[in-house]
Amino acid sequence: MSKPKLALYWASSCGGCEIAVLAVHEEILNVAEAFDIVFWPCVMDFKVKDVEALADGEIDVCLFNGAIRNDENAHMAHLLRRKSKIMVAYGSCSSEGCIPALANFTSRDHMMQYIYHDSPSADNPYNFEPMPTWEVPEGELTLPKFWNTVKSLDQVVKVEYYLPGCPPEAKWTATLVTAAAAALAGKGELPPPGSVIGNTDTVCDECPRERNQKKIKRFYRPYELKEVDPNLCLLEQGLFCAGVATRSGCGALCPQVNMGCRGCYGPNEGVDDIGARLISGIASVLDADTDEEVNAILDTLPDPAGYFYRFSMSHSMLHRTDIGHTLQRSGDQG
Ligand code: SF4
Ligand code: SF4
């Protein structure tokens, strides 16, 4: 009997998710044993035409990492969706937009202006910008069109499962792949479509630090504190921590090394907007009675929007800021 088919793809992301797949260590042998890997361009020399040659639905499971920020990402998302029975948004970029979606706080035009013209490192005497098409004697060269808005995978195609994390912890990758292999062999059941693979509670629930309901007068950057109490909640020491609104599953990795959680597992179950939930969670530790005092404390938090939506901007209720809509070029899908 032929083995089920597995595909892995990398859209707009840093590549960490590809490494995270390999972090399952020897389990990767079980993956290779259980599946025929039919597409994994990061690791083996597959071509897009290899995917195009497959029948619709022939891929059993596709682990798709990376956000959708250009035409090529979208084309591959649609192609792999058509060819796959189970589409998994693998990692934070694919699930929620992650770091690429911080670009939704600005616009494509602003980014191009800064990167190619205004940045201190720009050396561009002819004022070039990437051209989607360029005529050469041999014909027309094309580049994927860069979108104004970064989207999560499920904002472009239907997704069966989400595996959050930047990158996902290996144990959840192993859980997903093992469960999928068992279900495809008729020996188990997968969770209902739309499920997030992982826990439902928060990073605070798995964090070993003590919470004493201590209030703070200001926020600090880690380097501003001479010492960080290794046992006390970081938030109660004035260090920003998103654990209160973030799905558990990593084992509270960051707080255990004196670094506040940044929210890479996305909101915990039942929370639609991680930023809104964080604002209410953080409000509970502010030592303030008036609006002025609240504002003074929040003024010590640099880049609050970046803190509240670092991994979740595409999936947030904001989705993007108005400046991008104002500057959006006509015909843009993003
Ligand atoms: S806010 Fe951060 S440091 Fe405090 S208990 Fe939650 S995860 Fe731990
Ligand atoms: S503590 Fe937060 S930011 Fe760090 S790995 Fe866990 S979920 Fe991600």
Brief overview:
By secondary structure, this protein is of the alpha/beta class. It has helices at residues 16-22, 27-34, 48-52, 71-83, 92-96, 108-118, 170-184, 203-206, 274-283, 291-298, 304-308, 322-327, and strands at residues 5-10, 36-39, 59-65, 68-70, 84-90, 133-136, 139-142, 146-151, 161-163. Residues 326-332 have low confidence and may be disordered.
Give an account of the 3D structure.
With 334 residues, this protein is of the alpha/beta class. It has 3 domains: 5-99 and 150-184, Rossmann fold (3-Layer(aba) Sandwich); 107-147, no CATH class; 203-302, no CATH class. It has helices at 16-22, 27-34, 48-52, 71-83, 92-96, 108-118, 170-184, 203-206, 274-283, 291-298, 304-308, 322-327; strands at residues 5-10, 36-39, 59-65, 68-70, 84-90, 133-136, 139-142, 146-151, 161-163. The strands form 3 sheets. It has a 5-stranded parallel β-sheet with strand order 2-1-3-5-9, with helices on both faces. Strands 4-8 form a two-stranded antiparallel ribbon. A hairpin with a 2-residue loop joins strand 6 (133-136) and strand 7 (139-142). The longest helix has 15 residues, at 170-184. 40% of the residues are buried. The protein binds iron/sulfur cluster (2 copies). One iron/sulfur cluster binds at residues 203, 246, 250, 252-254, 261-265.
